[in-house]
Known about the structure:
Blueprint: E1 2-7, H1 15-19, E2 27-31, E3 34-43, E4 48-56, H2 58-64, H3 87-96, H4 98-101, H5 109-112, E5 116-126, H6 131-137, E6 143-148, E7 167-176, H7 178-193, H8 204-216, H9 222-229, H10 234-244, H11 269-283, E8 288-292, H12 298-304, E9 311-316, H13 319-329, E10 342-346, E11 361-365, H14 376-387, E12 391-397, H15 424-438, E13 441-447, E14 458-464
Parallel strand pairs: 8-9, 8-11, 9-10, 11-12
Antiparallel strand pairs: 1-4, 1-5, 2-3, 3-4, 5-7, 6-7, 12-14, 13-14
Helix pairs in contact: 3-7, 7-9, 8-10, 9-10, 11-12
Amino acid sequence: MLLTISTTHRPADDLGYLLHKHPQRVHEFALPYGTAHVFYPEATEDRCTAALLLEIDPLHIARRGFGVADAAPLGAYVNDRPYVASSYLSVALAKVVGSAMGGRSKERPELAGTPIPLIATLEVVPSRDAGVPRRLFEPLGYRVETSRLANDLLDSPGAAEPALSPYVTLRLEGTVTVAELLTHLYVLMPVLDDAKHYFIGDDEVEKLLSRAGTWLSSHPEREFIATRYLKHQRWFADAALARLSEGAPPLEEEVDAPDVEPAVPATPLNQQRIDAIVAALHGVGAHTVIDLGCGEGRLLGALYEDRDFTRIVGMDVSPWSLRAAGRRLHLDNLPERQRDRLQVMQGSLLYRDARLSGFDAGVLSEVIEHIEPDQLPRLERVVFGEAHPNAVIVTTPNRDFNARIPALAADERRHRDHRFEWSRAEFGDWATSVAERFGYSAEVGGIGEADPALGSPTQVAVFRA
Ligand code: SAH
C-alpha cells in the first residue's frame, strides 16, 4: 500500500517538520499487522514528497480474516488487503503521523495551522463507482482525479470485453493543512474501502467524532460516511449522526416552501405533491406504477390506499430508506393478497435494470435533483429509454420560487444533497429535450400555491409515450 503526499509550498522540505519525519532518513514502524516505512523520494525547497509504504503481513490477515470475502476459496490468503488503501492505512496514519494529524508541530507550529498546496496520491483504492471518491472529497475542497487500474486478473477466459477493475488510483489536490488532509484520509479511506474494519469497536463513534466532528457535520454525504465508517452498524451510525446533527438541520427534511396564505388551513407541500402525483397517475390511466427513488415510501402508502393501482413497486438506492419504507408500510405483515401488489426493491437509477420495465407509469418525485448533472443522461437512458413506461411523472423544486423561502440564503438550495435546482426555464428545456429524444410528449406545470411572478414551489412534468 503506497500513499504519497507532495507539496510545492516553499520551502517544500518543511513538510518534514510537519510530519515529524526527517526527509533525509528512512523511518520504520512496527504495526500489529506489518511494517510502515516513511521516506522521501524527493525533498527540495521547491517540491517535497513524503511516501508511506505499508507492508501488510498476509498471515495476520488470514488469521484475523479482516475485510476478506468469505466466499472466495483461499480468499483469506490471497486478497487485496496488502495493496489497497483501507482501515489498515488509517491505523498506520494514527500511529506514524498521529501528532501531525492532531495539528502539532514543535518546529513549525504556525505552518501546521496554515493551508498549503498538497497533493495526495493513493495508488490503489477500492472504488467500483468512481463517483464515490468525488462525492467524498470534493465537498472538502479537493480536486479529485481517479484513473481506473487495468484489470489483468479478473477476466473470465473468452470474455469479449475485459471486466472493469474495481480499483482506481486516487489523486487529491487541495490547499489544506497537513492535519486536515491526514484526518480526511483517516476517516474516508475506510469509507471508500467499505470492507470489514480492522478497528471496529465500541470507541469508534468517539474516534469518528473526534477526528471528523468539525467537517463531517456539514458534509453532504455525512450519513453515508458515518454509516460506512461504522460499517453498517446502524446503531453506531445513528448515535454518531444524532450527535453531529445537534443544532444542525435534520437530515432528511427539506426546507419546503412556507405556506403563502397562512389563513387557509394549509396542506403541507409534501402532501400536495403526493395528491398531485396520484391525480396525474389517474390522468394517464395508470394501474401499475413504479416509484423510482421512493425514499421512505409516502407516495407508496397513498397508492396502496387506492384500489385503482393494482401493482405498486418502490425502488431506491438507499437500504435505510427502504427499511424505513418497510416499517411505514408494514411490508412484513401485509395480507397475503397484497404482497404481490406492493413491493420495494433496492436498485440504482444509473444502471439498466430489467425489473424497471413493464409498468404503466414511473414516478420520479424529488429525485432528479439528487443526481449529479453529468450522470443525469444515464438516468434518462435507464428510465425513459430502457424501462420506457407509458407515462413518467417527474417533480423537482422550482428554483425561481426559492426567493420566497425566508430560510434560504441567496443561491442556497433546499436540501444539502441537492446537486442542482432548476428554474422553470431549465426544467422546461430538459423536459422538451427528454421528450424528443425518447419519444414522449411532455406537459409541464406546478404544484403548491403559485407566486404570480415566481411560479409554484414544485415543478412537475407529465410525459406520455
Ligand atoms: N421520492 C421521495 C424521496 C425523494 S428524496 C419523495 O418524493 O419524498 C430522493 C431519493 O432518491 C432518496 O430516497 C435517494 O435515496 C434516492 N436516490 C438518489 N439517487 C438514486 C439513484 N441513483 N437510484 C435510486 N434512487 C436514488
